[in-house]
Amino acid sequence: MSDQNPYDAAQAAAAKLAELTGVERHDIALVLGSGWLPAVDALGEATAEIDTTDLPGFSAAAVVGHSGKIRSIRCAVSGGSDRNLLVFLSRTHFYEGKGVAAVVHPIRTAAAAGCSTIVLTNGCGGLKQGWQPGQPVLISDHINLTGTSPIVGANFVDLTDLYSPRLRALCQEIDPSLDEGVYVQFPGPHYETPAEVRMAGVMGGHLVGMSTTLEAIAAREAGMEILGISLVTNLAAGLSGEPLDHSEVLEAGKAAASRMGGLLSQVVARV
Ligand code: 8IG
């Protein structure tokens, strides 16, 4: 990213987004993580789709199964006014080494574009007994093991109730079988050792992944209401007896697509 301050950079990206999509303001942002791409069509027809690299400050997608696109979707709400969804079909991960400002630039762009709610999704490893690959879990809280923050300077942002209790309750109204868990972000890109997975469990974690926490912090700083949903795509390392493989992530996503799509579309209609 340039030497422009990150909030001005986000304003510039939001202005370009409005110009390219023809949508002046967006209401709800969604970031789709590993395994979530097959769910996107359930949200409705695209008003516009652009490449992330068409906007200032964004870089190309780096992971198979993530596409470097941003989709604007107009979502009809029965009995209410339509919502403009801003869907990021990929994210920049901390492990890409582009810096924390690059990781949270989409979040700040969404805030600058008008979004007051953000849905952060990811694919991750699950620790809790009984959880199965393909199962969605609401993020109740997080542990950030990246050792860093998207915020620079003496800005002491409160992270109590970071993951909105209101939005979690709404999800559980839609699907009472949804469980909750604490998400632990490791730096990656390697998966955990079995000993690190045990450590995450001792710390109070239930989900292990490589995204989301820095984005949630930036979203809170920007004043957005945050919903975090993990798709457990694999049992965390050492729990299944099998090695981890990125292809199982994509498989779990395909298998869970209609459940995830249904959940997301009901949530955005009721936020
Ligand atoms: I998908 O088991 C996915 N992403 N750290 N551990 C970590 N990240 C992940 C995992 C996992 N599965």
From TrEMBL:
Gene Ontology terms, MF aspect: purine-nucleoside phosphorylase activity
Annotated a purine D-ribonucleoside binding sites: E192, N234
Residues in Nucleoside phosphorylase domain copies: 28-268
Top-level EC class as recorded in UniProt: transferase
Reaction(s) the record says it catalyses: a purine 2'-deoxy-D-ribonucleoside + phosphate = a purine nucleobase + 2-deoxy-alpha-D-ribose 1-phosphate
Binding residues for phosphate: S34, H66, R91, T92, H93, G123, S211
One annotated GO biological process: nucleoside metabolic process
GO CC list: cytoplasm
Keyword Transcription regulation: no
UniProt xrefs under PANTHER family: METHYLTHIOADENOSINE/PURINE NUCLEOSIDE PHOSPHORYLASE (PTHR11904), PURINE NUCLEOSIDE PHOSPHORYLASE-RELATED (PTHR11904:SF9)
Family: Belongs to the PNP/MTAP phosphorylase family.
Protein name per the record: Purine nucleoside phosphorylase
Lineage: Bacteria, Bacillati, Actinomycetota, Actinomycetes, Propionibacteriales
